[in-house]
Specification:
By secondary structure, the chain is an alpha/beta fold. It has 2 domains: about 5-150 and about 240-280, Bacterial extracellular solute-binding protein, family 7 (D-Maltodextrin-Binding Protein, domain 2), CATH 3.40.190.170; about 155-240 and about 280-325, Bacterial extracellular solute-binding protein, family 7 (D-Maltodextrin-Binding Protein, domain 2). Helices cover about 45% and strands about 20% of the residues. It has helices spanning about 5-20, 25-30, 45-60, 80-85, 120-125, 130-140, 180-190, 200-205, 215-220, 250-255, 255-290, 300-310, 310-320, 320-330, and strands spanning about 30-35, 65-70, 90-95, 140-145, 150-160, 175, 190-195, 210-215, 230-245, 295. Strands 1, 2, 3, 4, 5, 6, 7, 8, 9 and 10 form a 10-stranded mixed β-sheet that branches. Helix 7 links the parallel strand 6 and strand 7 (about 190-195). Helix 5 (about 120-125) crosses helix 14 (about 320-330). The longest helix has about 35 residues, at about 255-290. Its main location: other. Pfam families: DctP. This is TRAP transporter substrate-binding protein. Keywords: Signal, Transport.
Length: about 325
């Protein structure tokens, strides 16, 4: 199917805009059972809002649609679940860290220090840049829902010294997702990045396989990483979000009436999850400090200067391509 980015921007929501769900029709058809996998822990809003949506989907369809949610990497690590969705063995999953494997520029939202505020994030990811990425996944066989889940701005935690300057990262073994952009970022800053699935992280910190990690505050709290760390450095180096994926063939086999309900409810869940993350991050800082961790304010400018001088931005502009990079800079300014 040959579609433009502008066409794709309306493709995902077209059914919702043009159809009225007909539960009677759905009820007469075989029950639609869908499995949704995620690495987010059960208490994370990226799970609780999807579970809430699954209940609303069931109610709106009068039981015709059964969306089952499996949090905490129950169905495998993110790379495993992503492969399962690509192959059709799993219906839906959310992730950010492994999707670059089939769409190289899909990780463009994770360019270090690119998004100064959430206004910049959502202008880009709900707009032309997001549509550009979603269209590329569609052409690679994956339907991507129009609203991303917020995973938050990522900050560095450590078990020994805090990270307040680029020099503090020298030689540090830091866990990163299995994504080359993360690896390159921390290599450029002088660290020793160690890719690990999120489900392995707590044990790796506990046994000192890695010295530190980087994640949003809400995830640090919900995964209890504060139990095995001592410092939080507020680097905010990457904004991270999760796309919700479905195999194209599986999605096209879902009746249009059911697509309408699922699209609307998962989009609502994503928007609500964003508000949850904002509130949770504010409370997480209080709770994590109460658990004994020390927070450190970080001047981001020296980190960005190191990256710029080392050619990090020019290198990734070349890898992502001029069109994707131009859409990013349209919303965030020149990098």
């Amino acid at each position: 199917m040959n579609i433009t980015r502008r066409t794709f921007g309306t493709l995902a929501t077209g059914a919702a805009a043009g159809l009225v769900a007909a539960p009677g029709i759905l009820r007469a058809a075989p029950k639609i059972k869908l499995r949704y996998g995620t690495a987010f822990p059960p208490t994370h809003p990226g799970v609780t809002r999807i579970v809430e949506a699954s209940k609303t989907i069931a109610a709106r369809s009068e039981g015709a649609i059964d969306l089952q949610v499996y949090p905490g990497s129950q169905l495998g690590g993110e790379s495993d679940m992503f492969a399962q969705v690509r192959g059709g063995a799993l219906d839906l999953m959310s992730t950010s860290s492994v999707n670059q494997t089939i769409v190289p520029f899909a990780a463009i939202n994770a360019v270090a220090f690119a998004f100064p505020t959430y206004d910049h994030v959502w202008k880009a990811m709900d707009g032309d840049l997001g549509d550009f990425v979603r269209k590329a996944f569609f052409e690679a066989g994956l339907f991507v829902f129009p609203k991303m889940l917020d995973n938050g701005y990522r900050n560095i935690t450590t078990g020994s010294k805090p990270i307040v300057t680029p020099a503090d990262l020298a030689g540090m073994k830091i866990r990163v997702p299995g994504n080359q952009l993360w690896v390159t970022l921390f290599q450029t800053l002088g660290a020793a990045p160690t890719p690990l699935n999120f489900g392995e992280l707590y044990a790796a910190l506990q046994t000192h396989i890695v010295d530190g990690q980087e994640n949003p505050l809400a995830l640090i709290q919900s995964s209890k990483l504060y139990e095995v760390q001592k410092h939080v450095s507020m680097t905010g180096h990457i904004w991270d979000g999760h796309h919700i994926f479905c195999n194209n063939r599986r999605w096209s086999a879902v009746p249009a009436e059911a697509q309408t309900i699922i699209l609307e409810e998962l989009s609502t869940a994503a928007v609500n999850e964003r508000a949850d993350i904002k509130a949770l991050n504010e409370q997480a800082k209080i709770d994590i400090e109460a658990a004994g961790l020390t927070f450190h304010t970080v001047d981001k400018a020296p980190f960005r200067d190191v990256l710029a001088k080392a050619g990090f931005y020019t290198g990734w502009k070349e890898k992502f391509g001029a069109e994707a990079w131009g859409l990013l800079e349209k919303d965030v300014g020149t990098l």
